[in-house]
Amino acid sequence: MEAIVIEGLTKKYKKNVALDNINLTVGQGEIFGFIGPNGAGKSTTIKCLLDFIKPTKGIAEIYGLDAQKDSESLKRIIGYVPSDVHYYNNVTVEEILKMTGKFHGIHNLKEMMAYYVERFELEPKKKMKELSLGNRKKVAIVNSLIFDPEVLILDEPTSGLDPLMQHRLFEELSYHHDEGTTIFLSTHNLHEVESFCTRTAFIRSGKILSVEEMETGHTPAKVVKLTGAALQVEALQAKGYRVLSRTDTDVSLLYQDSVKQLLTDLSFLEIDDVEIRNQNLEEKFLSLYDGGELHE
To answer: What residues does the ABC transporter domain cover (predicted)?
Structure first.
C-alpha cells in the first residue's frame, strides 16, 4: 500500500514555478528521504501535503485521503516537525504537550510526557519564549512523536540539535519505523539520508531529478580514478563516462554499468594505476546539482 501519492503536483506564484508537475510515491512503512538545495521545492511540497498551502494543480494523498479535502482527518495521523518552530510565546512546554494529548486522545499522556521530557531533556514549566532554537525544535519533535503517528513528516529535524539529541532522535525514529510508521525526511544532511533512508528523491527548481535506492543491494554508480602519463578519455566520454576532475596525470570519471564492461573499456588505455569505488551520496548529489545528471 502507498502511504503518500503525489501526482502532477504544481504550485505557481505568479511567474514563479515552485513545483513543476512532480510525481512521487512513498510506500507504507518506508523511510523516504527528500533532498535538494535551498529553494528547490522541498518545503513547498511538504506544505501542500499538510494543506498549509493549496497547489495550483495536481494530487497529493496520504493513505488514500486527499491532502486538501481530508485535511482535518489527516492531521490526526500525521506527526510534523517544521524547519522553523513557532509556538505562542507564553505557552509552556507542558501546555503544548497536553493540548496535543487532548487532540489525539492519548490515554497515557502523563506517562508519555514523562518519558519524552526526560528523553529530550526538556523543562516542562518553561515558556516557549524562554527556549533556545534547539529546545524549541525538541518540543516540536516530542509533539510529533508522542501520539504514535501513522506518518511522520520531518523538515530539517536535526537543525539546532546537538549530536546527542540527534542520536536520540534517530533512535526514536527507528523505533517508530519498526512499529510501522512511514517517515518522510526532508534534509540537507546527506549522511542522515545515506544511513537512515530506504529511498531518496532529489529535487531541483521544483522538479524531481531522480529517485534513488539507498538500501543494501542497490548498485550505485562507480567513481573511477585513472593514473597515467597520457590518458585519452574522450572515447570513454562518448560511452557515457563523465569527467569529474582532471590533472596532468590523473582523471576521475563517473560511470554506471557493469564492472565487466568497465574493465573492457579500460583495457584500451595506457594506465599506470586504477582505483574503482562506489559513488557515495555526496558525489551523487554533486552529479545532479553541479552540471546535470549522469549519462548512462
So the answer is: 4-230
Picking from 173, 196, 213, the residue at the C-terminal end of a domain is 213
Domain assignment of residue 23, yes or no: yes
Instruction: Check which CATH number belongs to the domain holding 122 and give it.
Output: 3.40.50.300
Confidence of residue 243 (pLDDT cuts 50, 70, 90): confident
pLDDT digits (tens, 9 = 90+) for 11-67: 999 889 999 999 999 999 999 999 988 889 999 999 999 999 999 999 999 999 999
Contact assessment for residue 35 and residue 190, using Cβ atoms and an 8 Å cutoff: yes
Distance in angstroms (rounded) separating the CA atoms of residues 213 and 201: 9
Q: What CATH number is attached to the domain comprising 264? A: 3.30.70
294, part of any domain: no
Compute the Cα dihedral for 84, 90, 92, 97 and give only its sign: negative
d(CA 274, CA 231): 12
C-alpha to C-alpha distance for 105 and 258, rounded to whole angstroms: 54
Residues 202 and 258 in one domain: no
Residue 162 has a CB neighbour count (10 Å cut-off) of 10
- Relative to beta strand 151-155, strand 78-81 is parallel
The single residue listed with the C-alpha cell 551523487 is: 284
Better-scored residue on pLDDT, 263 or 30: 30
pLDDT in tens, 208-240: 998 988 765 445 677 888 998 777 788 788 887
Dist CA 10 CA 206 (whole Å): 8
Mark whether 70 and 176 lie in a shared domain.
yes
Give yes or no: residues 86 and 161 share one domain: yes
Tell me how far apart the alpha carbons of residues 31 and 20 are, in angstroms, rounded to a whole number.
24
Question: What average pLDDT does the chain have?
Answer: 89
**pTM for the whole structure:** 0.79
What total of structural domains would you count in the chain? 2
Domain span including residue 228: 222-289
